[in-house]
Amino acid sequence: MALRAALRSRSGLSGLLSQRSSCSSDIRMCVSPLLVPQERNYSTPPKIRVEFDQSTGVAVMHMQSPPVNSLSLDFLTELCISVEKLEMDKSCRGLIITSAQPKVFSAGLDITEMYGKSPEHCGAFWRSVQEMWLKLYGSNMVTIAAINGSSPAGGCLMAMTCDYRIMADNPRYNIGLNETQLGIVAPFW
Ligand SMILES: CCCCC/C=C\C/C=C\CC/C=C/CC(=O)SCCNC(=O)CCNC(=O)[C@H](O)C(C)(C)COP(=O)(O)OP(=O)(O)OC[C@H]1O[C@@H](n2cnc3c(N)ncnc32)[C@H](O)[C@@H]1OP(=O)(O)O
């Protein structure tokens, strides 16, 4: 419902994002090496589940945030912490990222994080997006996106930051960047 409201009010959404784009250099400098969980509600089930096989050195990260693994601040924070933990374990050489949700790898940025929120919240959210792709793109592990469902926009970004991508062969699954259709201008990075 909130997504539909946000899509109906494109100008509000793009306005907020273009506000952030005007201080993109500031954002770049603000990316911190460690994300501190700020709004994590520990009563909710984890959005990320990691299985690490010591014998192969390969970890599988299951994204399990119903319904569509949208990239909320909480989700991104958990994901980054999980990647950091694996990075610190030198026996972990490879990381496979996949979805535990049916038909969707990730729906991209959580629209509800950007609609009707304060500039401060949008700033924190955008930093967490940057942190996610920087962490994956710069990882020492071999990273693979096992794309077992649709992966628009931020979901595509996440997959692109991995070293390899394998996508399930299903014509119903889409992948690509659609932010101009949504009226979003991706800021400089
Ligand atoms: C290599 C280095 C490069 C570095 C570059 C750095 C930066 C680059 C900058 C930007 C690039 C990335 C930009 C990202 C922008 C975004 O991600 S904006 C989000 C765009 N996402 C979408 O438009 C996806 C919209 N959703 C869908 O298409 C479909 O929902 C789906 C994912 C294909 C699933 O379809 P399905 O039929 O199974 O489910 P529903 O459509 O019924 O949805 C179920 C439920 O989920 C809600 N929902 C869907 N998507 C989102 C979302 N993105 N955020 C929040 N909520 C979402 C939907 O509203 C439904 O909820 P309900 O109505 O309450 O049931």
UniProtKB/TrEMBL annotation:
Xref: InterPro entries: ClpP/crotonase-like_dom_sf, Enoyl-CoA_hyd/isom_CS, Enoyl-CoA_hydra/iso
Pfam short name (any one): ECH_1
Keywords associated with the record: Acetylation, Fatty acid metabolism, Isomerase, Lipid metabolism, Mitochondrion, Transit peptide
Gene3D superfamilies assigned to the protein according to its UniProt record, in alphabetical order: 2-enoyl-CoA Hydratase, Chain A, domain 1
UniProt-listed SUPFAM superfamilies: ClpP/crotonase
Alphabetical list of CDD domains matching this protein: crotonase-like
Protein name: Enoyl-CoA delta isomerase 1, mitochondrial
The organism of origin for this protein: Pogonophryne albipinna
Taxonomy of the source species: Eukaryota, Metazoa, Chordata, Craniata, Vertebrata
